[in-house]
Amino acid sequence: MLKKIVSKSYFAIGLGFFLVFSAAPFYIMLITMFKRSHDLFSPTNNPFWLNESPTLEHLDLLFNQTLFPRFLLNTFLVGAAVVVITVLLAVPAAISLARLAGRWGESVGIGIFLTYLVPPTLLFIPLSRIVSLLGLQNSLWSLVLVYPTFTVPFCTWLLMSFFKSIPKDIEEQALVDGCSRVGAMARILLPLSVPGIITVIVFSFTLVAHEYIYALSFIQDSAKKTIGIGMTTELVRGDVFYWGALMGGALIASIPVSILYTLFLDRIISGLALGGARR
Questions:
Q1: What is the spatial distance between Cα 49 and Cα 45, in angstroms, rounded to a whole number?
Q2: Cβ within 8 Å of residue 232, ≥6 positions away
Q3: Cα Rg for the chain, rounded, in angstroms?
Q4: CA–CA distance, 210 with 154 (Å, rounded to integer)
């Protein structure tokens, strides 16, 4: 009995430490957003508490003196387009390599995944040249064109292993019952692969929201910036950092992604677990 109590106590302590560690960045962003400038920069004040009355001046700067809502809209539009492109390309590619390609399919899948590991710092210069030749410089379409180059390879590799975890007998039974190959994929494979597809959607959208190098290289106009570069370029002016507005913008921008992960957490874990089961 004593051993069980001690074990549960250790678990509760570990869980509490993990919760505090995970929530601390959001708490710091929240109080920084409402701190007065004097309270924020005074070395004698407690950085973890509101030492003076809260203020909305940082939110006023964020929403009324920058194009923050536009940054959010641009990020959503680019993310939605990239997600659609990624799903339309990665799902058929993964099914083909997992089901129809034979033994060399896995080797091709690994080769596709290796392209995801190439650092963006090596690619943004040649990609900038391609974007310039296509006349997409300083356009959101440049991001829609470039981002799938690193979301599609990883998502294809992830979905390959996921489709391999689905027994072939189910698909073959559908073929026996009169379904075509495409019909069996649409009626059997895709419904069973919903956790994996949701994982791909969340991963692609999160990657787009966090990406910095390509967006900084291709976009110059403030009205066309995404949240990743809009926050840092508009709220860091010379050697002046508007920390209250920066933390407020970071907190607000993280809310949709947090909600997305919370709503689909079980399916994301299921997709990642099943996707890694055959590796």
A1: 8
A2: 212, 246
A3: 23
A4: 16
Q: In angstroms, how far apart are the furthest CA atoms of the chain?
A: 76
* Encoded tokens for 196: 């994996």
Residues in the chain, how many? 279
Is the distance from CB of 227 to CB of 72 less than 8 angstroms?
yes
Distance CA(3)–CA(22), nearest Å, equals 28
d(CA 233, CA 137): 18
User: What is the model's pLDDT at position 279?
Assistant: 47
CA 179 to chain CA centroid, Å, is 36
pLDDT at 102: 63
Report the CATH fold assignment for 78-223+264-275.
MetI-like fold (1.10.3720)
At position 155, the amino acid (one-letter code) is C
Residue 121: per-residue pLDDT: 77
Vertex 46 angle, CA 43 and 50, to 5°: 120
CB 54 within 8 A of CB 34: yes
Say if residues 59 and 248 touch (Cβ distance below 8 Å): yes
Q: Which residues of the chain have pLDDT under 70?
A: 1-2, 100-103, 105-106, 264-279
Residue 156, token pair as written in the block? 């294809």
Cα 10 from Cα 216, distance rounded (Å): 46
Phi (first) and psi of residue 138, to 5 degrees: 60, 40
Domain ranges of the chain: 78-223+264-275
Predicted local confidence at residue 49, as pLDDT: 84
DSSP calls for 96-116: IIIIISTTHHHHHHHHHHHHH
Contact assessment for residue 251 and residue 31, using Cβ atoms and an 8 Å cutoff: no
Buried-state track 181-198, b at ≥16 Cβ within 10 A, e below 16? eeebbeebbeebbebbbb
User: Which DSSP category does 136 fall into?
Assistant: -
How far is the C-alpha of 82 from the C-alpha of 200, rounded, in Å? 11
